[in-house]
Amino acid sequence: MDIEQKQAELIDHFVNQASTLKASALWPLIIEATSHPSLFAFSEILSSPTVSELEGTENSFCLDVLRLFAHGTWSDYKSDTGRLPQLVPDQVLKLKQLTVLTLAEMNKVLPYDQLMQELDVTNVRELEDFLINECMYAGIVRGKLDQLRRCFEVQFAAGRDLRPGQLGNMLQTLSNWLDTSDDLLVSIQEKIKWADSTSELDKKHQKDVEYRVEEVKKSLSLKQDKCKYSVFSWDTREVIVILFSGNLAIANSISAWKRVFILLL
């Protein structure tokens, strides 16, 4: 079973459980949900009618804890311990896992020093054991531990519940991306049209050149034929003259010119 399917089943389970309980009995269920090793999303539980009704009551701290696990971090808890109840060890572990997810949303290269400060970890060995055993083995993040650069390179991180107002920002970001994509598509289409028109002009130019080459060939062929005909006619007329005149010197001269014309052709 993949993580998403298991999460969906767990969410349905806790939402159904919450709907059958009274406000005074919700705290143990919330502890169970926020301690469960395979549950990392809490907005559905937070928005269930029974839980929402806790707002403004003596049990409103249950809502505060759920909001912490839905959107907060370990640092948020430490800064508000006077108002929030003490967490059990499994809740502490879960909140630190969620803290890593929040940090991974903001930056794909997480320095060890930042992680140790955010997670209250005192040394690199403890930090790397936490990242490997509690995060990567749990399937919520994938990445590379770089001991030389002292950082964790995030390749994948599971998403957390959307914070209040975050949905609007995401929709605006998607809208901006869509506008940019439309502009890029128009630009690409214009370049395609330009390339097509250039190709047609090139083809037309090539046809014009081929036509001119053929015309030149034809012209040269006609001139060559005329030249041959002219030599032949001239040679014939002169031979006739020679035959009738009997002038040997002229015959020799004409014979020499004939050889010259033959070489030229």
Keywords:
265 residues; mainly alpha; three-stranded antiparallel β-sheet; 71% helix; disordered C terminus
Write the layout of secondary structure elements.
Elements: H1 3-19, H2 26-35, H3 43-46, H4 49-52, H5 61-71, H6 74-78, H7 89-106, E1 109-111, H8 112-119, H9 124-136, E2 141-146, E3 151-157, H10 166-245, H11 248-264
Antiparallel strand pairs: 1-3, 2-3
What would you note in describing this structure?
With 265 residues, this protein is mainly α. It is built from 11 helices and 3 strands; from the N terminus they run αααααααβααββαα. Strands 1-3-2 form a 3-stranded antiparallel beta sheet. α2 packs parallel to α5 (61-71).
Uncertain segments of ≥5 residues (pLDDT<50)? 231-248, 260-265
Radius of gyration: 45 Å
General form: elongated
The amount of beta strand, in percent, is 5-15%
Q: What share of the residues lie within helices?
A: over 70%
The structural class is mainly alpha
Widest sheet: strand order? 1-3-2
The strand count comes to: 3
Q: What is the helix tally?
A: 11
Q: Describe the main β-sheet briefly.
A: 3 strands, antiparallel
How far is the first residue's CA from the last residue's CA? 90 Å
The string of secondary-structure elements, in order, is HHHHHHHEHHEEHH
Mean pLDDT: 83
Short description:
The protein is built from eleven helices and three strands; from the N terminus they run αααααααβααββαα. It is mainly alpha-helical and 265 residues long.
